[in-house]
Amino acid sequence: MFNIATSRTGGLFESPFRRKPVDSSQYLTHLIKYIHLNPVTHEIHGNYEFYPYSSYREYFKFKSRIIDKNEGLFWFGNLEVFEKFHETATSEEKISKLLID
User: What span, in angstroms and rounded, lies between the C-alpha atoms of 100 and 32?
Assistant: First the structure.
């Protein structure tokens, strides 16, 4: 239905999306933060901590339903580091490295 209405073909996410390998733990941790901050960066929501369509809050639940929070926290060390990492400012230079050319 969406494809007909918008004169598209194939899957909804067919284009212009591309892939970039995650080749280091530093890249992975910044990528997780980049994804969590996207709603604020693109002015969709005022606070990434309470954006309802994010996995961010799942890390703080006793029993996570969406993600394997132990796997995610492994890359940060613990929940406190995860939370502090999200609170620190990220330079445009670091974010630009996450984007696909």
Answer: 15
